[in-house]
Structure formats: structure tokens, C-alpha cells
Fold these 2 entries.
Entry 1:
Amino acid sequence: MFSHTFLLNQLWKIQHEEGYLSDKAIRLLSRQTGRSWVDLEGVISFYHFFRRKPAGRFLIFLNNSILSEFAGFPEVLKAFQESTGAHLNQTDPTDTFTLQMASCIGLSDVEPAALINWRPFINLTPEKVHHLIHQLKSGTDIDDLADRPLSDAYPNDEENKRLMIRPYQEGMAISKLIRMSPDEVIKEIMEAGLTGLGGAFFPTHLKWQSCRNQADPEKYIVCNADEGEPGTFKDRFLILKYPGLLLEGMITAGFAVGARQGVIYLRGEYQYLIPKIKDAIRHFKNEGWLGNDACGIPGFDFDIDLVIGAGAYICGEETALLESLEGHRGEPRPRVHYPTERGYLGKPTVVNNVETLCTAARILEQGFEPYLNTRHPDSPGTKLFSIAGDCLYPGIYEITWGITVGALLERCGAVDPYAIQISGPSGELIPASWKDRMLGLHDLRCGGSVMIYNRQRDLLQILQNYNRFFMQESCGVCTPCRAGNYMLSVQLRKMERGLASTEDVDKMNDWAKLMEYNSRCGLGQTAPKAIIQAAQRFPEIMDQHTRTKNAPFDLDLATSAYDRIINELR
Amino acid sequence: MKKVTFYIDDQPCQAEDGKNFVDAAAENGISIPSLCYYPHIDPPLATCRVCTVAIGGQPRAACSLKVSEGLRVQVNTPDLIENRKAILELIFAEGNHFCPACEKSGDCDLQHLAYESGITYSRFPHTFVDRIVDFKPERLVIDHNRCILCKRCVEEFVTDSGKKVFSYHRRGGRTEVNVDYELEAEMSDKELTRAMRLCPVGAILLRGKSESRPFGDRKYDKPESQEAIPLTTPVEKPVVPAKKKVVATASLAGCFGCHMSMLDIDLGLLDLIELVSFDKSPLTDIKRFSRHVDIGLIEGGCCNSENIENLEYFREHCDILVSVGECAIWGGLPAMRNTISLEACLEEAYLHSPVTRNAQHIIPNHEDIPKILDRVYPCHEVVKIDYHIPGCPPSAQHIWKVVQNILFGTKYDVIYPEFKYD
């Protein structure tokens, strides 16, 4: 029978061939998979990038993240609308262009950015857009027009700690691996003190060991390449620059836990990286590093597959990712079992982030001593940060854990910084004046995204953008997250209109805490974090938007619709 | 199975090791409210979050917990009770729950839990999302206005060949539950009835069988119950009257049903007249306030600019303002238009209705006519409201008790039959 898994790849294939997912296609798929119509519709409608209606010849997704907004999103959107003749979420009359928005597409250092037919277009200006659309209309090949977004990379300023951004020679980690036993590999990772670099800081060796300990012989390594946190783009960099390193990391993990199959779950926004990964996999197979007796290790059969996500931030949550891999809606599972106990298809599964796997390979390659030799005993090692926003040198930075906020701002050339968003909207919103605070497990945790806002930026605009992001990306399963984000949006809009009383702001805080306390997964629990932190850490800004006394009812707004209708009739 | 001892709010309890915590608590006489959980569901769905409890201060969904030796769980601390109440209010605000017009009223788990929690109004702004009522299935009707997305039906109804009959559709605030039309047509009446019963609200209805029990004899009505509803808003220190208290009333976008209910105080009315005098009110036909008023009772929400002015006028002149009835509390039946654009409403009413003769194509407007608001607003979104008396209309007893409590500090317990949303 047709496998339930990899349904996403199947859907992508149909959509790439036919432009959309027609009723006919669903009927056929329903027969092939033995799944009901309503079930498949449920899956398709969950993912932002799947379409049930035909699109124009060019499908445009313009990024609406906060950094894009600050870099000129409104003007660029207008330019797209004028030059294509398509309204937002619509196709122009000639069926040539379809214009849509997308949550952060991982190009924060080169905003505003858009994907057109899944190819990246960066540093957009109204002029560039007009020119681009003109070229497309006149038949220029889109591949000739697309940009190549390889970010600027800044190696660690401490020369002896350049662990990741350094020349890569493929097969080095594997050459070490073949001389080790699985237990030795896990021990090596343990002694290095590697923890999950997606932001959770969970010790990698514990995860691997737990999976290795399971009796079930069928085990999986899943690479989480679904970085969707606004402001992050380090995995894109790693895959573009060191695709082989990622595969070596997966092989290492596979060997350590005794898995036979690895899967890379790549976010749909990064489809232009597919050739890179596929070429690398092909090359590794030719070298004998993948396949039966992989790396020449007798009995170690290991292969890697690629599954493409379709526009759902929540799938970066590991259990949602597993659901998605299995061809379901990307809803986080209730926390009953760890993925290492029951993960993909109910089998023991290690889910690791791209950077974690790459680092594991680097540790094998260079030994763990350089990794240990760092500033803070609690957080050994280095980390890639993707820094963007109001700074002179946005890009990828390798830093040593324990770096201070002040040093970080200096390194990237922050211009008049006022606030910094660490780890994306669900992380920490801090004042730039916290110069002595350190980044690391023991102080400010970070998954990699750093967004810098200068003094001219409007905090309320930032919070409203975050709020829209979470409303868009909530999976909709639990009440507090599904409804709570909307409730917060009502209060934020009151503030925007200057009609929020101090009581309204208190309410907003209470509701934010309600979400934090009751939501079913990390997304809902952290969605209101920036609002809570803004109230605590930037009270002066919040006060500017707040009336102290009871604000009057917004009668103008409430009667505006009526006035407009009557005027139009006259 | 081995019995273990665990603790709920420090009280020792006993149950089988590994038993679901909601069931184990119930066995020990402690009911934990939940909407998505139902017996034999494993793993639990944990979607509604109403059952949130705490272990060592950390929140956990009770339905996802299993009993083990020595487990200590906080269930009924004041904070947790308040937290659960807020989640229930959130559910009410998110959907379009018009209890007075719902077949399931009286048999509805959501309504029942809200009664038990003493919810008089929702602290959250109602979303009034435009949702459809799906009549396409052959025998079922799916009313998306009422669906709370608990996922029970999605999880429970799978065909013998493993096909899902129900599924979530879309995501975020736009999530809804759809039914597979083909599979629905193949289901037996018995199964469909089971689907209707499994739904904790009135979202899944079986045509011709929607009222499982006649009105007046409903599962959760408890007509004889003297059990008090746990209301948290009685006045602590009422002012002892030195002279006659003054009361005013108004009917905004309402039907005067609540005023009729006030008159149903019957003989109490005679006592009332001894104790209070009326100022501005439809009962007295006094149009303007002649003095400061102790308590204003507002029926109806705000649908036009005059309602807003009137309500603000009341707020200025009344010490205490009370929303009486569903319309004042959240818009009620007039708010059914809130899911439709004002433009569509006016066009349907004045221009395109088959019975309208309007050759000049006019929507009434004049500077002397109040402007219609974009939607119907509950009173507490316009001015500060001190108390809410739910019901459509509220029972006379409930109104009378609140007034007595506010003015004279009389004991304030509303019993089950007096506390209703319909």
C-alpha cells in the first residue's frame, strides 16, 4: 500500500506539476492512500503553501516579518501590486502573477525579500520590483533573475575557537567514526557537552543514548531543517555552505543510536536548497558513505531521505514535525512519550536541529577539546547567530557561548540600538542597555536569531507584527493559543488607536499570562512573551501608548462603516 | 491493579496505579471540569485546557496525568479555579454561543460547566467570526458557530478501514471541524446519534433528532436543586440606607423581556416600592435624570449611537451599573448580525429584501436618526459595568437578589434554577 508518510512530497509533486491540488488529484490520492477526502483536505489546508486553486504562472510570496516591515515592506508590496496588477492574495486578470504574503522566509539579512516560484529575491526596492516584473513579463528565465542568498559569514573572533565557520573537508568526521564504537561516539559527544542548538539546550548525548537504549531495532534520525523563528537563517547558511557536514552529522547520529534511516525535514521556504542536498546525498552514496554497509562499516545500513515542509512554523516543534513527516497536520503531540521512545511512526527517533548535527560532525572531526575550551563551564562550545536588523554587518556569526550583549552589538556594528529580540518573537525582548548580560545556558538562552531595533523603531509595531505572526502560525488545537492571540490583538489595536486605559494594559498582561500558563505546546506558551517582557522592560514605551484614565468608547470607529455606506449611496 | 495513594490539595486519595487523573479524582468525589476529555480516550487530546491543574506550581492538563504513588496535585486553589473560569470564558468569547437559540441548551457540557463556575459574562471581547452552518451532509447538520474544536469527534469516528470521518480544516483562529460527506452518508443512525451525543456542545446535530430531551426536562437543569452557584461578585460592604434608594432602568438594544422579568418580582415589588424610588426608566416614563441614582439596571446592548449616548448618560448618573440579560452582557440575539458586515445587513433590510418597496434606493439616514454601529457592543465594552445578571431573560429572583445585595447587603446566593443563560 502507498505509504502514509511523505504525503507532503507527494502533494508538492502534484502542485509543482499541475500548479495546484485539484479535486481530481485529491480523489486519486484518497484512493491511493486509503485516507478520506476530509482527512486530506485537513492536511492540505493546514499548510500555507498548498493551494486548492490554480495560481498564476508566477507565485509570489512576499515576506511580512518585522525586519521586512522596517526595511520597506509597504513600498515593495505596493510596487508588486502596481507592476503585476494583482491584489494581495489574488491573481492578476491575465493569470500571470499571484501575490501572497508569507511569514519569515529565512532571508532576514537581505530584507525585503520574496520567493517567486520558490526562488529567492532579496534586497527588494520598488525600482527593483518594477524591473523584475518587467523582465518576467518579457520572458526572461526566472533562474537567471533569482538571487543567490549566501549570507556574509563572520568566523569566531577568537582564532582557536573557530569550530564551525572554517574550511570543510568532507569525510573527515567519517574517517574518525569508522574507528569508533557507537558508545565511544556518544561518550565523545557527552564529553564535549554538546546541547541542542535549536535553542532548547537539551544534552545531545542523553537524547542519543535514550534512543540507543530502546529495544526496537527500527530507529530514525530526523534532521529538523525547519527553522522558522523570525530572524533566523543559520540553517540556510549551513546547508548552502556545508551540506556534506550535515550528512556526516546524521551518519554519526545514525551510527551512534543504531538507526537505518535518516530524514531531513526541510522547510518549504528553502526549496532552492533541494539540489544542494540531493547532490550531496548522491555524492555520499557514490563514496559509499550512505547505503548498505555505509562508510564501509559492516552491517551499518544507513540512508537519508528528504521531505519538504509547506509553510508551517509550528512544524519546527519536534512532535509537530513528526506528525507532518507522517503525512498529518502539523499538530504537536500531547507530551506522553519522548520521540526517543516513540517518535516517527511510533519508533524510537532522534530529532536534532541542523546545527546540532553539523556540530556533532565537527566535534568528531576536531576532537572535543577545542569545543570544551570556552568561556563558561555551563555552556561549552560555540554557536552560530544570525544577526539582522539595525546593524552595519548583518550575517552569520560564530560566537563563543558566554559572550556579552555589549560585545555582540559591537561585533555586528549595531547602530543606535534600543531593543534586541533574542531567539525570535518567542524568545527574549531585551533593552540594548543590558550590555553585561551573557548569552548562554546560564543567562540569556538563544537559538540563533538576533534582531536589533534602533531607537526609531516603534515597539508597538513590533508587538503587533509578532502577534500577527502567531495568529497566522498557531496550529489551532488548543483554546488559549488559538483564541488568546486574537484577544491580545484587540488590546494592541486599542493601544495603537490611543484608546487603551491602564486597565486595558493590565488585562492584556493577564491574558498573556493565561496563554503562557495554559497553552498545550511551546508556541502558545511563548507567543505572548514579548508582550509581557515589553511591559516589564520598556514601561516608558508602553505608557506612551496608554491613557491613564478610562478611555472613551471609540464611537468614530464604530460608526465609520455606516458613514461610509451612506456616503457611497449618495 | 495495585492501588496507590495520591494527594489532591493535600487530601489523600486512592486509585489504581496509572489511572487517568480526571477519572481518579472523580472516584474520590472531586470533579475536575473538562470538555475534550471523555472516558476511554487514550492518549487524551488535551485541547480545551479547561482541566488545567498544577504539580508543584507547574501547570498540567489533568486529563494528561496518570495517577502514581505519592503524586501531589493542586486542583482547587483559588488561582486554579479562576484560571479555569478564564479558559471557559475564552471559549464563550471565541464562538458564537447563542444559548437562547440553541437546541442543546440545557444539555450542553460547556453551558453546564459555565453554570458550575458561576460565569456571568466573558472578560474577553467576543470574536463574532462569521461561521457557517453546514447543511450539506445528508443527515447531520454541523453548526460551526458552536464548535469549540475539542477534537472529540475527529478522534472517535474512524471507519473500519481506518478512514477519518471528521477532520480539522485550516489552522489557527480559522480552524474548523469538517465532516466527510461520503462517509457520513454511509454511517448508521446509531453512529450519528452517538456523534451528536459525543459533541459537548450543539455543533453536531442529527436532523429530526436534535432535541434529545424536551425543554423543561434537561440533563443539567436541576429544577429542584437548592445548590448555590458560586458567584464571586457580591458587594462586601453595602451602604446602609439612610433614605430611600433610587433606581433607574433602561432598555437599549433589547426586547423589554428583561423589564418584563423585573415585573415578575411579583409581591417583592411591593417591598421594593417601600425601599426604593424610580428615576429615569421606561417603567416611570421619566426621560431625563432628575437626581443622582444609586443603581442603574441596563437591558440590551448597544447597536446604534443613541444607545452609546444613553449608556454613557447612565454611567454618569449612577453609582452602580448592572448589565441585565444576555443582550446587555454580550450583545445577545441582536448580536447575531455581528458576524455579517453592516453593509450586507443594511442592503438586505432596505434594498434587496423581497418584501421591501424602496424605489429611491435609500438606506434611512438623517442627522436626527441615530447611526447604526458596525456591530452590536456589550455594555461593558462601552462603559464600566459593575455587575452582570445573565439570562434571557434573567429570572426575577436573580435580579431581585442582586438588587437587594447591592442596596442592603442581603445574602447573595443564586440557586441553580435561577441561574440560566437562556
Entry 2:
Amino acid sequence: MNQPSFSRCLLAVALAGGLGLGSLANAQDTIKIGVAGPMTGGYAAFGEQFWRGASQAAEDINAAGGVDGKQIELIKGDDACEPKQATAVANRLLDQDKVAAVVGHFCSSSTIPASEVYADAGVLVITPGSTNPQVTERGLPTVFRMCGRDDQQGPLAADFIVNELKAKKIAVVHDKDTYGQGIADAMRARLKELNADDRVVLYEGLTRGEKDFNALVTKIKAAGADTVYFGGLYNEAGPLLRQLREQGLKVNFLSGDGSLDPAIVTTAGGPQFVEGAYMTSVREARNIASSQEVVKKMKEAGFDPAGFTLYAYAALEAIAASMNGAKTGDGMKLAEWLKSHTVPTVLGPKTWDAKGDLNETSFSLFVWGPDGNYTEMQK
Amino acid sequence: MDWHILAQQLVNGLTLGSIYGLIAIGYTMVYGIVGMINFAHGDVYMVSAYLTAICLAVLFSFGIDSLPFALLATLATTMLITAAYGWTIERVAYRPLRSAPRLAPLISAIGMSLVLQNGVQLSQGAKTQGVPSLIPATLRFGEGNDFVQITLVQLMIIVVSLTSMAALTWLIQRTSLGRQCRATQQDRRMAAILGINTDRIISTVFVIGAAMAAIAGVLVTLNYGSFDFYIGFVTGIKAFTAAVLGGIGSLPGAMLGGLILGLSEALFSGMVNTDYKDVFAFSLLVLVLIFRPTGLLGKPEVEKV
């Protein structure tokens, strides 16, 4: 009886050894990179854009030989746009999955706490979509963004409101979140510079996740506003626009990049409600010459790379380029490399300043047409 | 404040409150009869919003262009399927735990809520879905810019809510089924001894609650046009609050709580500040519970010796 059990023991040891060796070999073959964002919850559409964009980038980079001869393996992290969950996901990606870098997060209110975790561990993180200034203003060396800042975006809207629309009474509405309130405040700061802050007749926050803003709309009507600026995402912008129109308010409506998504036509309940709304955003990535090949490939695969998809693609490209260039996995060295080199991406060549912000970002104004499509306005 | 602004806020509040009330019925009836909070109820309402859109799409693709017929058919189908959801949830998640400690069905309810949310997310996608605005008709009173308006859908919401509330009250107070419900609520074991099939009655209550949530789902989808798999959460919390405010377990209390909650939100938002409307609504709830721990219309629980 002793003999077989001993051999079984040996077998087990051999098996365990084999598994150990296997996983060791696996670790050497791939480089793990986290993709974090709202994969579930009310803003999961943005998370899907991140994941699709990064997945396509990983596929293309791997097909071209990978990073330093190793294949990229993406790890999904779901923060559901909740700050608490974001730090938990960040810790999991670092401790459990041992990622070398991260593409993420989406909501600024998630990116800010999560980036503290990455920066403490010296891991490179590039956000494709968080535009709140605080993301890069805290002096964290390994935090980068692939998009512009709200203190560039908000003023563009303010200039347009004052100079082009010549608004007399402005209602400012936000969603009480870091991004939404941040961009609304940035817009308002510019109004102050233009000596137009006394034209703000209403400044209030609505609650994310709700659908009924009729009480607020009636209040905007009572205040006699001719222009409404909304800082927030399309999930709330759509119903707000619809209820403004349903209550017969023919006001100008402006918003930021969080609302500029084809989904707003759905959340509003039809193109007739969205028609004529103005929105600021980063340049439409699907129209850039350098992105055409990727756009075609993704459309053929059945996914329209709208919104932040190509920004996530570019973020992973930047991570891969820095790893290839710096020949290391050390986040601090990767960050130094990114700050001193020009990276060719699907969005064109990109460079970063010492804070981790892009050197060149150009925001544009878009206007919605009667057919439920938006066009970039010519300056 | 002008009279037309105030009247408009009342219309806004009544519409919102009626919806809270309809969904609150599901919470309050289930609590009344089995003494548990059905956290999956908000998600049943969410499912009904999806069913509404699917039904409308199917009907229109078959070339049915009579809007009243399409709406009635959608309402009937949605109520039927949502009721089936309610029945199944009770059968799968709660009945096996009937004699378990109180905490067990509560956890089971939270689990059911997650199953529904993630199930819908996986099968329908994470994106916000919507139906186009179907009934653009609006009634306006007043001249120029000083008018009060109520859209036809808003009017429908108020009328349908009050009608279904009245029908339900009649059902509980006047029919044999209602008597059995009340008996089961008062003492389940005694009711069983007297020959009432209490399991069937509990199932019926879940079915009724789900059907009411389905009515709310259809109306909300017509009114706001968009929904996603997450809408059950916020609305569910609000409806639950309405049920507690009105006195959980009390049927008219649910409607009263819903209307008070909706009106207080709209009026506070309109007169004071939108940022703090929820703070105000919940403070109201706290105040009511301090002075009437069982809610406005709830009966004080008598300790059984």
C-alpha cells in the first residue's frame, strides 16, 4: 500500500512542478496590460469603447511582433464609474494580475483615485477619456492622458456662447460629478473673464441615473434662460434636451464631449430633440487620415469605433511604443521616455509635456443636424 | 413665483409621484404578505421597459399602424411576461427559503436583482436603448409664454395609475382573492389551516406587483423614451422610499407615499435647489418615521403573544 501512494505523491509533485514551470513560461511570453473603465453600470457603453479599441490595438501590435518580442495580454478591470471600485480594481490589477501598464479609467472621478494607486506602484497609466484638469495636476509622474483638458474645452463653449450666440441669460446645469461639474466650472470661469458671469441665471446639479428633469426644466423656463449649458454625459443630456423641447423651450443647448455620442439620439428619443444642439469635443477621430485603416477594419468586424474607441487604441499604442523604446517595464522610465519622444499613433504623432498632458490638443465645436448626425463646425 | 410655474411643477410632481406609487405597490404588497423586501422589484420594472420596446418594435415590423391598438397590445403582453417574471422569481428565489431566517431571502433578493441586471446587460447590451417619441400631443392652458402644459403621456400616467390603484383596492377589499390575501397577511399559518393555499396567494401577490411594475415600465418608456439595464436601481430605491413613507404594507399608503415623494421633489427642486432635492425628500422620510415609525398609513404592529 505504501508503494503506490508514494508514486502518486511523486506524480503530484511532478504535475505541480510542470504547472509551475508552465505558468513561469507563460509569464515570460506575454506582457499584461490592464484596461480599466466602466465595463458594467450605466456608462458601460464607454467601457465597451475602451475594451474594443484596446483589443484591436493589442491584436494589431501582436500581429506586428508584439512588444520586445512578447505578446500583449489585456486584463479587463471594471470600475462601474465608481471611485471606490476604481481603487479596488487598481489594486487588483497590480497585486493579482501584475500588469505592467494600464489604459484607463474613464470617469475622472474614478481616474483620479485609481491613478494614485498606480503612481504609488510606479506603474504607467494613460487615460483615453478623463478630461478633468486634476488628473494630471497632482504631479504624479506616471499619469498621462490621450485627450485634452476641460480647462481647454469649457472656454471654447463659453466663447461661443458669448461671441456667437450672444446669450443674455445662461442656465448652467451639471451632474455633480468630477467631470460634469469640472467642465461646467471651467466654462463659467471663462464667462467671468469675458465679464459675462452676471448673465448666469441658474447654476444647479441634477442626479446621475435619473430620467425626470421636468422640475429643473420648468425652473429654467421660469428663470427665462435663452441658453443652457450642460456639463455631463449623454445618459442625462438626452432626457434633459427632450424635456426642454417638450416643455416648449426653444433655448440654445451646449454640452461637452461626454454628451457627443450617437447614443444621445437614443437617450433623447429621436433626432428631432437633439437637432441644433452644440457640443465641444476632441476632434472626431474617425475622420483623421491616419485612422482610416483601423476604422475600416473595426467596422468590418461589426463595431463602429465611435467616441473614445480610437483614443483607447492610441493609448495602448503609446504604452507599447514606450516599452519598445525604453526597453524596460519600469513605469518611471517609460514615463520619462514618453515625455521626451514623439509617438506615432492612430490619431497622428503625439507628444506630452512634463505633467503628462498632450502638447497639442484641439477641441472643436460640433452641431447636431436634423438626421441625428453631428458635424464639425468650420471656424 | 407665477401661478403657471407652480402649476407646472405640480404637474411634474404628480407624474413622477404616480410612477413611484405604481412601483411602490410591488414593494408594499410583498412586504405585507411575506415580511420581506423584494429588492429585485426595481429590476422587474427595468425588464418591463425592455419588453415594451421589443413589443412595439415587433408590432410595427408587422405593419400595425394603429397606435392605440399597438399600445394596448404592448401593455397586455408586457404585463403578461413581466408577471411571469414575478412568479418565477418568487418560485426560484424566495419559496425555497420560506422557513429560513429573515436574512436569507433578503440576500437572495439582492442576488436576483444582480442576476436580472447582468442578464439584461449581457443579452441586450450595455448601451442605452430607446423608443422614438410616439405621442407628441400636448394640452396647453394659458397664453403666450405663460402656459401650463401636460403631455398626453403625462395625463395617461396619472389617469392609469389612479385607475389601476382603484382596481387593485377593489380587488383586495371586495373579492374572494382579496379576502384570501388579507387573511394570509394577517396570519399565514391560520389561513393555511382554514384551507387557503397560501403559497398560491403569495405567488399571486408577486404576480400583481410585477404587473403593476409593468404598467409603470410601459408608461415611463413612452414618457422618457430611453432606458438601460440600470434604471431599476434608482427608481427602485425611490419607490421603496415611497412605500416606507406611506407605510409599508399599506396599499393606499404606497400611492400616497409616491405622490408625496414626487411632489416634494418637484416643488423643492423648483423653488429651492435641484442639487438637494433628494436630501429634502429623505429628510422628509426621516421626519415622518420619527413621529410615525410605521409610515403615514401603516398600522402599528401588534406584538403577538
